[in-house]
Structure formats: structure tokens, C-alpha cells
Specification:
The strands form 6 sheets. A 7-stranded mixed sheet has the order 15-14-20-19-18-16-17, with helices on one face. The chain has a 5-stranded mixed sheet with strand order 2-1-5-3-4, with helices on both faces. It is about 25% helix and about 20% strand. Helix 11 links the parallel strand 18 and strand 19. It is an alpha+beta fold and about 500 residues long. The structure holds FE2/S2 (inorganic) cluster (FES).
């Protein structure tokens, strides 16, 4: 540790830090645009200028290392004047189209102008005209007029994805960011360019012009779309939004976590969120025996119907006629309940475990395993195995399916044939899918964003998450569903006992 003074106050900081990082750690803000903690410093924006005692010229805090005894001023007259001049320079070439810019409300240039700029506009010349609508990726638009050439995007593609699709072209005031030879930025992590762009130069087609950022709330969660468990922020319209909401969730961004995902998320995690609001099962329903149509029922009716069936099968010592098809994306807490319900309270019942089909991994964050909690399921004894599905289903009278995963392994035609012989088929799922037409009861369950719990990721790290959104429609978590069902199934006393003793 070394001692430095920042604005007259003494601090002990680690060696080998830059002034900007050291100041950040002790809670002193130094404005910056091109600096990003995960990228090599570039020193191009000049926003981080500070005065160091004994050094005649102002220095860059983002690339100057601290030294023992160093005295730094981050907010004196000289520094403030320099900052104002830098902002004036950056804004001279900027279109100032904040009212129609998606970054407005979270733009660092806009924030810094109000905090450190507020100068009178002396600019009389024509602003430079550039391409405002350049498609640089299937998911991204570059506005070259808004770009301040901080080169964060270029460094991200050089240092993190190592794909180098963007570069700085031309010299001096003609410099601009562009793609090489019209090739697009096509890698699994391109969406991160929107987050790291400090202004509104790179915008996301999925989010562009959909919602003003200040209407959105954000809360932390865990991405459930592969085994990595990347930490994310869900940006959603709160219930208090005064106008009609078309949907709740508008975007997903990474939440930094050095142990799991650093500062990034993959495009699957970023753009795969639409399932949270679209195609949801909203109410419990039951197939009418005569008309074959699904009709809404109450949760109570479901618990009584299925609870009675389980009670009768247990009383007749036919527990083996009960089956469950469990997926690999439930929470640890839900697996614990499943274990108590089926394995301990109805030990003759049979369970099979079927996860989602493997996808393509990329040796960075995205794993081949597209299930969110394979390790958690294993911890509670739910392991995916090859089975004879016909044999499993043939002698069942009641089967509860958790999710549609079985249809990723067996054709729907084949399933409809073998499911015909089962008297009662129940589906508990958050979204509509191919199993719906084959089921007798359909129950809406919560998506991850609507419940709390924990997952164990592919590296064995347990991560807890909280509820971000209220359950849509009449959805309930699997814990609520199984607990209420246990009360009506004649296993309540054992259920409570096993829950207490584990
Ligand atoms: Fe230091 Fe840009 S943050 S020069």
C-alpha cells in the first residue's frame, strides 16, 4: 500500500493502480469517457485530466499510475476549466440530437455537460455530416455523427472477442469508426457494444425507439438461458407506468461479476428475454371431456382434482402409477420440494429428467448446456438419463410434466400416440408450447424473473436471485404449486416432516 493525497485528503491505496482507479476506490469521481475497467486505457477523450503537484501540465488520470506521496487535485479551477474545454471540443462535432437519442437519460456526455460543462455555445460553423444510420451488425446501428471516437467498441472487439470487426478510419477531423469492407460485426457478444458506448453512437435495434430509459426500472437477476448463470439487469416498466404497457421487459444488460461473467453477457442472454412477456400461459385450465376444449378452472379446483387422484392411487397402493417429467431449469429450492413430494412422500412414483437439447457453446460465457441448473438438479438427485419412454409412460395413470422439454427429445406425433393411454396428464409450464394440445390440465408457472431462489452454475457456484416482476396472470412458482397440491394429496404430514428434516 502507498499513501497519496487526493484533493488534500490522505488515502492508502494499492500500488500499480491508475489515479482514476485509486480515486474510484476511495469514492472520488473523476469523469471519463474512453476509460473502461475491462479494456486497456486509450487516453483519447481527455475528460479525466487532473493536476498532479509538481507536474506543470494536467495529466490523464486513466493512464497515470499512482506513486507514493503523490498529491492529486481532481476538482480545482484549472481542472474544471480544462474539462469544460474538452466538453466544448467533443460537443462541437456532436449533433446534439438528445431528444431523439435512445441513450438520452443515461448518456455520459449529456450528464457531464450538465455537471461540468454548461458553457455558452460559441459554435457557428456547420456541424460535420456523417452516416447516421449505418448497419454495423444484424442487431446494431452506428450513428457516426454521435460518435466521440473513444474507441471502446474497437478495443472490445480487439481485446475481448478478438474478432476486430470495427476500426478507426481516416485521420484528424475526418476520423470515424466503421466496419471493414462492409463486413458486419457478427459475434455472440456484439450487444455489449451498446452498453460500453458512452454516448448514443451504437444503438440496439431491439431497443431503438421502443422506450425512454427514464421510464424503466432495473433490478438484478440471473440469466437462465444457459449453464453459466451470468448476472444481469432486467429493465422493465413498473406497474406505476401511467400509460398502457405493451410489455413489461424492454432489455437485459449485464451486471458486472468478476467471478461469473465479468462485464459482459452473450447475445442469447441479451435478446432471449421475450419469453418473459410473450406466449405465456395465464390461467389454469382443464380439458372438457365432451367438447375437448380447454376451460379455465381455479387453482383450488386443480388442487382438489389432482390431489384426490394422488390420494386414491396411494390408498390403493398404486403409487407407481404416478409419474413426473422434470426439467433441468428449476431452482434448487424447487428441486428440494420435488424430492420431498415425489421421492420421499410417494416413493413408488417414477421420475424422469429431461433437459433442453444442447446448443453451441463458445468457450467464453455461452455453454453448450442450455439448462440453467443442471448442477443444482444433480445435487438433489435429478440426473438426466437415457430411458425407454414407452416403458415409463405405459403403466401410468397420472403424469405431471414440468415444462415442454420432452418434445425436444421425442416427436410430437410419437408422444401423442403414447400419451393417449394415460388417464390424467398435467402440464406445469410458464409458456405455451407443443405439449398443450396433449394435456388434460394446464397450469401457469412463473418465469425466473417472477420468482426467487438459487441456481448452481456450470462451475459449481451457487447464486441466489430475487423476484423482479410480479407473476403474470395467475402464474405460481413450482414451490407454491407442489406445496398446495401436497395439502390435498393425503401426504401433508409426511411432506411437512420431510421438509423439516430434509
Ligand atoms: Fe482518460 Fe478518456 S478517460 S482520456
Amino acid at each position: 500500500m502507498i499513501k497519496i493525497k487526493i484533493n488534500g485528503k490522505e488515502y492508502k491505496v494499492k500500488e500499480n493502480l491508475t489515479i482514476l482507479e485509486a480515486a474510484r476506490q476511495v469514492g472520488v469521481e473523476i469523469p471519463h469517457l474512453c476509460y473502461h475497467p475491462a479494456l486497456e486505457p486509450e487516453g483519447s477523450c481527455r475528460m479525466c485530466l487532473v493536476e498532479i503537484k509538481g507536474v506543470p501540465k494536467l495529466q490523464l488520470a486513466c493512464s497515470t499510475l499512482v506513486k507514493d506521496g503523490m498529491e492529486v487535485e481532481t476538482d480545482n479551477e484549472k481542472v474544471r476549466e480544462a474539462r469544460k474545454a474538452v466538453l466544448e471540443f467533443l460537443l462541437a462535432g456532436h449533433p446534439l440530437d438528445c431528444p431523439i437519442c435512445d441513450k438520452a437519460g443515461e448518456c455520459k456526455l449529456q450528464d457531464y455537460y450538465y455537471k461540468y460543462g454548461l458553457f455558452e455555445d460559441k459554435f457557428e460553423e456547420e456541424k460535420p455530416r456523417r452516416n447516421k444510420l449505418m448497419r454495423i451488425a444484424p442487431n446494431l446501428i452506428l450513428d457516426q455523427e454521435r460518435c466521440i471516437l473513444c474507441t471502446r467498441c474497437v478495443r472490445f472487439l480487439r481485446e475481448i472477442t478478438k474478432t476486430e470487426e470495427l476500426g478507426v478510419f481516416n485521420r484528424g477531423k475526418e476520423s470515424l469508426i466503421s466496419v471493414y469492407e462492409q463486413e458486419l460485426v457478427e459475434n455472440n457478444y456484439s450487444g455489449n457494444l451498446v452498453d460500453i458506448c458512452p454516448v448514443g453512437a451504437i444503438t440496439d435495434i431491439d431497443f431503438r425507439f421502443k422506450m425512454r430509459t427514464w421510464f424503466l426500472e432495473k433490478k438484478k437477476s440471473i440469466c437462465p438461458l444457459c449453464g453459466r448463470g451470468c448476472n444481469i439487469n432486467i429493465h422493465f416498466l413498473p406497474d406505476t407506468f401511467p400509460f398502457k404497457r405493451e410489455r413489461r421487459v424492454y432489455r437485459i444488460t449485464p451486471e458486472p461479476n468478476p467471478k461469473i461473467n465479468g462485464y459482459w453477457i452473450c447475445n442469447l442472454g441479451r435478446y432471449g428475454y421475450h419469453y418473459i412477456d410473450n406466449d405465456r400461459i395465464l390461467v389454469p385450465s382443464k380439458r372438457n371431456e365432451n367438447s375437448e376444449k380447454l376451460e379455465e378452472i381455479s387453482w383450488r379446483e386443480f388442487y382438489e382434482d389432482i390431489g384426490n387422484k394422488i390420494k386414491v392411487l396411494i390408498r390403493r397402493k398404486k403409487g407407481e402409477k404416478i409419474g413426473a417429467v422434470v426439467n433441468l431449469s428449476l431452482t434448487n429450492e424447487e428441486y428440494e420440494i420435488l424430492k420431498v413430494f415425489f421421492k420421499q412422500c410417494v416413493p413408488q412414483s417414477e421420475i424422469i429428467v429431461l433437459g433442453k437439447e444442447k446448443g453451441k457453446g463458445d468457450n467464453f460465457l455461452l455453454t453448450e448446456d442450455r439448462n440453467s441448473n443442471t448442477r443444482g438438479a444433480k445435487k438433489f438427485g435429478f440426473i438426466e438419463k437415457k430411458i425407454d419412454i414407452k416403458k415409463f409412460l405405459n403403466n401410468k395413470e397420472l403424469v405431471i410434466f414440468f415444462g415442454h422439454e420432452i418434445t425436444e427429445h421425442y416427436g410430437i406425433q410419437f408422444l401423442s400416440e403414447i400419451l393417449k393411454n394415460i388417464k390424467t396428464k398435467v402440464l406445469i409450464a410458464s409458456n405455451k408450447g407443443p405439449l398443450i394440445n396433449l394435456m388434460d390440465y394446464i397450469l401457469p408457472s412463473c418465469v425466473v424473473a417472477e420468482k426467487e431462489g438459487s441456481f448452481i452454475n456450470c462451475e459449481g457456484i451457487t447464486q441466489k436471485f430475487n423476484r423482479v416482476l410480479e407473476p403474470l396472470g395467475k402464474s405460481k412458482s413450482e414451490i407454491e404449486i407442489l406445496t398446495s397440491l401436497a395439502q390435498k394429496s393425503g401426504i401433508w404430514r409426511n411432506f411437512l416432516l420431510y421438509r423439516r428434516t430434509g
